[in-house]
Write a structure and sequence with these properties.
408 residues, alpha+beta, 8-stranded antiparallel sheet, 4-stranded antiparallel sheet, 14 strands, disordered C terminus
């Protein structure tokens, strides 16, 4: 299945498959193959007619520990600059950039974690290995003794946690998720980045929600039940309640309609604006450390959880979001995702040319929307500063606000 979504796109464009030893123009590579290409020892140099689907150090965003580290650093840097974005409330929480749960790296931050845990001893925390995907190695704890026991003997957990020497992130578990039909879900949003400096990114309109198969319960007796807590399809498809017709999925559009009907349009729009806001700032957080190679683009799978206050939390970012299809609709969506991605990164539809300005015409966007263009945002700021000096104001006599420039 995975192969055919890509292969069907390539064959439709009459592209020719080449062997590993032959020259290539477009490489939909795995992360390991990308690492090999950019390995200093390989001495490989990409040419102007070559394009690859990962940035060399994409893991700055897609490894759970590095994502957290970079976002924390980004917030601190903005704070030092005195940026209004880093404003905090009276409890010390970031007002505009509080989109990842309180998270620590283990074993490095163990003492900091213990200090935080003791402030709220009844809280639940979720442990995740930094380099794994598809829900592998994840488990929940609500007592320090569980963590100590796990670190001494990895086999004590029913989740079969890997060896304790592996690095983990431990984050406060969002125990008040928004439920639909009593079940927990998360959102998969696809984000295409064509450049980090300046930042250019697009959001795909056809994301989806992944539902758990068992109704949610915060009961401590259910902490080990993955069908209650983890939305990964790779786990849920083994549940007795799994429905292979719809694959436990809803389109984001369906979610939006549901929320507009149950909560109102205004708060629903605010939620999706917030998700876009979080996405852009997560990308800005890594833009300075990302190797911005002009031969690269990346289609990330962003996973968001929404709590019952309609607040969005960034859970993780995937470098190689699954292209395996669980349903016919899923397959059509993923086929279109690849097709629209190629149209944006190669708008001439011909051999790649790295000398172009990476500004594709709007008629090739397909189901993508431009999420953020740093160059456009900067020119907008300059334009507004000029207007301000001339005493000009926005619509209805209101002064332009700095935050509004980042959105269309």
């Amino acid at each position: 299945m995975e192969k055919s979504v890509l292969m069907n796109n390539f064959e439709k464009r009459k592209w020719i498959q080449v062997s590993p030893d032959e020259d290539w123009n477009f490489y939909w590579a795995g992360v390991q193959a990308t690492r090999n290409i950019y390995n200093v020892e390989s001495g490989y140099r990409l040419q102007d007619d070559q394009l690859i689907c990962h940035f060399p150090n994409h893991y700055e965003l897609t490894r759970k520990d590095l994502m957290v580290k970079n976002i924390k650093r980004y917030r601190k840097d903005l704070e030092k600059e005195g940026s209004p974005l880093a404003e905090k409330d009276e409890t010390g929480k970031y007002i505009h950039l509080d989109f990842i749960p309180v998270t620590f790296l283990l074993p490095a931050d163990y003492n900091l974690f213990v200090e935080e845990f003791r402030k709220n001893p009844s809280s639940t925390w979720i442990m995740k290995p930094t380099g794994k995907a598809r829900g592998i190695g994840i488990f929940l704890i609500n007592r320090l003794s569980q963590l100590k026991k796990w670190s001494r003997d990895s086999k004590t957990s029913s989740f079969q946690a890997p060896a304790a020497k592996d690095n983990y992130v431990i984050g406060r578990y969002i125990d008040n998720p928004l439920l639909i039909g009593g079940k927990k879900f998360d959102l998969r949003i696809y984000i295409l980045v064509t450049s980090y400096r300046p930042l250019k990114c697009y959001v795909y309109k056809l994301g989806f929600c992944r539902f758990c198969t068992v109704k949610y319960s915060a009961n401590v007796n259910e902490l080990d039940n993955m069908f209650v807590h983890l939305t990964n399809v790779s786990i849920q498809k083994f549940g007795e309640e799994y429905n292979s017709q719809h694959g436990g999925k809803w389109t984001v559009e369906n979610l939006r309609l549901f929320l507009e009907g149950t909560r109102g349009k205004e708060v629903t729009d605010k939620l999706f604006d917030e998700i876009n806001w979080c996405t852009v700032h997560s990308l800005k957080a890594v833009a300075g450390v990302m190797a911005n190679d002009r031969h690269c683009f990346e289609c990330y799978g962003y996973d968001y959880l929404v709590d019952d206050n309609l607040k969005a939390w960034l859970v993780e970012v995937n470098a190689s979001p699954s292209l395996t299809s669980t349903t016919q609709n899923d397959r059509i969506m993923k086929y279109n995702l690849i097709s629209d991605t190629i149209d944006i990164v190669m708008p001439n539809g011909d051999v790649p040319d790295m000398r172009w300005n990476k500004v594709p015409p709007k008629d090739v966007y397909g189901n993508y929307e431009l999420l953020y263009d740093e160059e456009l945002a900067q020119s907008d700021v300059l334009d507004r500063e000029a207007r301000s000096r001339l005493g000009m104001t926005g619509i209805g006599g209101q002064k332009f606000k700095s935050r509004s420039t980042t959105w269309k």
